[in-house]
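Entry 12.
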Amino acid sequence: MLCFQPAPMKTTSPLPDSLQPHRWAWHLRTLTRLRTRLTGEVAEHLLETLTPLRGNNDDFSDVARENSEHELLYAELAAEGEQLAEVEAALERLRLGTYGVCAETGEPIDPERLRAIPWTRFCLAAAQRREAGRTQPHPKHL
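Predicted 3D structure (tokens):
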């Protein structure tokens, strides 16, 4: 008697790991929360920059303090804007399925690094090279 045994069913998704939503769920939530927080901070700081300096005070130390506070505010605003752009870019990489892949080497980024810096575009080695000012392209991309 011949018995037919069906092939075992595959339990893996037909999508590659980079496109499986559950794989990046924590990252998506974290980046979305960060985007919301940064957007609020940027809006708040933009409103503060619209507040005119009181400048009518004869006390030069008060005027200097106000100017210094405004300069600090502009610096914070610039830093928040840069971080917001990085977060937006990471969310776009999630959407495109390229999240977690080093932009320089094309290799996967260590999951622990992505947990620590979820918006990162670079693996640790590439980030260290860039930080050291040695931003020559990886041999793979020559």
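Annotation: The chain has four helices and no strands. Residues 21-51+58-99 form one domain.
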